[in-house]
Amino acid sequence: MNPLRDPQDRRLPRIPEPCALVIFGVTGDLARKKLLPGIYDLANRGLLPPGFVVLGFARRDWTDGDFESLAHDSAKEYARTPWREEVWARLAGNIKFVGGSFDDDAAFDKLSACLDGLRESHGIHGNAAFYFSIPPSAFPQVLKQLARTGMADNERCGGWRRVVVEKPFGYDLPSAKALNDLVDDVFTRDDVFRIDHYLGKETVQNIMALRFANNLFEPLWNSKYVDSVQITMAEDVGIGSRAGFYDDTGAARDVVQNHLLQLLALVTMEEPTSFDAEEIRAEKLKVLRAISLPADVAAGTVRGQYLRGWVAGQRAGGYLEEPNVPADSTTETYVAMRLGIQNRRWAGVPFYLRAGKRLPRRVTEVAVMFKTAPHLPFNRTDVEMLSSNQLVIRVQPDEGVVLKFGAKVPGTTMEVRDIAMDFQYGEAFTEASPEAYERLVLDVLIGDRTLFPDAAEVEQSWRVIDPLEQAWQGTKPEQYRAGEWGPRAADEMLAREGRSWRRA
Fold it and tell me: What distance lies between CA 383 and its chain's CA centroid?
């Protein structure tokens, strides 16, 4: 080990040990558009070890060359970094494929033998991560095969074995518990990585840097100065080809239970004692346990479903017109809710969360709305164009941070209006932000669990969503036209408390 290198210095490049990444469902969109391009980008940045192997598993009668061709085309089309054939040539020799179905014992025996052989041929020392890019319904069968063959056993393999589980982490609390128990029966707790790709975004990680690296914000980050917090995840697209999944899920289960509640936890958690995975998770879990639901669910939540309309100048059909959506579906494509946090820092501050499809534009942001000054020594006309101070964290697109405050308009009169200081990642830094999956795959291979929710977080998030889902049973969603910012009832929900949604 280099005596000048501090192993805790996170500024230094982190390169995993020689290992294999086994991708189940390697022919799906996630693998083709995110995982394989992300692997190429890591290699292009020099962040993968020479002894790194990509091993695909799918129901295909393919050779290694067939899989290498798919991987090449996918990486070249979707890679973030410039394409270099010499980089791909180094990867291409380390791409393997095993064909078979999940109930095929012989295929998993072959997979196990292949990993054993890679110890000597590529020096992976038994290190392998299994990425479940498959439907949750297939998890039990694959886990059973990994247990049967001993591929999940660290001691037998002589190295580490990890599993990566994609969301959704269950459908409700009972199913989440069952899934967690199932995974924990096969892998040790420290070897389970639950991916929420939003936590891999640079702007989400910057929430912690913004809060805990700057003394400027801490004195203001509480109910004495914060009026409310709005967390928005707006999409301008519909459900595409996901009707089979989405109509059984809805907006609350699809994104609020995971993405938005994780953003809420990062914004409101107490400062951890260190930037350690367990310390950060402990503070997030405290917040999730302190969340309070509206006393009147009907008044404190809104469900919506989009009708035919116009988005960005394009005609868009309604949700019930989407392919394979039942004509009588009551699934929500929009949800808004008012939550509280019952602790000393945040008691009394409303947290407004909203997420929806077919909204005017794509944007995810956290807006901290500060209280107005208790006394303004200006005439009313002087401050007609002045609103409350805001700190807005833009997660996507146009990643950055906006601070909104009042300033005098140049001239001979006293007029104060809003201005904004706008920090953008693309302008402040020369290096482009890596894709979320690029960062998270690297963390899996290194064994860094900081950005991965654990079982307790997942289950506590369901304890927030399940009571709302139960209250909504038998109700019909409000309607809104594609291209609008959701149902009118969502505006009325805030208006009753003297507030309005920030137009993102």
Answer: 39
How confident is the model at residue 260, as a pLDDT? 96
Distances (CA, A) of 218 to 231, 271, 349: 20, 10, 16
Rounded Cα distance, 255 and 239, in Å: 13
pLDDT tens-place string over residues 465-482: 999 999 999 999 999 999
d(CA 161, CA 368): 41
Residue 12 makes CB contacts below 8 A (sequence gap 6+) with 5, 6
pLDDT digits (tens, 9 = 90+) for 54-75: 999 998 888 888 899 999 999 9
Average pLDDT over residues 429-445: 83
Q: Which of 72, 125, 259, 375 is catalytic?
A: 259
Return d(Cα 331, Cα 249) in angstroms, integer: 7
Using the predicted structure, report yes or no on whether residue 384 has a pLDDT greater than 50. no
Count CB neighbours of 481 within 10 A.
15
**Residue with tokens 């899989």, as numbered in its chain:** 67
The vertex-258 CA angle with 495 and 467, nearest 5°, equals: 65
DSSP 82-147: PP-HHHHHHHHTTEEEEE--TT-HHHHHHHHHHHHHHHHHT--TT-EEEEE-S-GGGHHHHHHHHH
CA dihedral defined by 254, 139, 196, 448, rounded to 10 degrees? 170
The Cα–Cα gap between 391 and 373 comes to 16
Contact between residue 415 and residue 409 where contact means Cβ atoms under 8 Å apart: yes
Running DSSP on this structure, what letter comes out for residue 131?
E
Contacts of 101 (CB under 8 A, 6+ apart): 59, 107
Tokens of 347: 């008691």
379: buried, middle or exposed (CB in 10 Å: 19+, 13-18, 0-12)? Answer: exposed
Residue 309 CA: distances (Å) to CA of 33, 276, 306? 29, 47, 8
Q: Look up 125 and say whether it is catalytic.
A: no
pLDDT in tens, 245-287: 899 999 999 999 999 999 999 999 999 988 888 999 999 999 9
Q: Is 109 helix (H, G, I), strand (E, B) or coil?
A: helix
Q: Which two tokens stand for residue 388?
A: 């409350």
3-state secondary structure of 149: helix
What does the alpha-carbon distance between residue 295 and residue 262 come to, in Å, rounded to a whole number? 22
Torsion sign, CA atoms 111, 164, 279, 189: negative
> For the chain, what is the mean pLDDT?
88
Which run of H or E residues covers position 315? strand 314-316
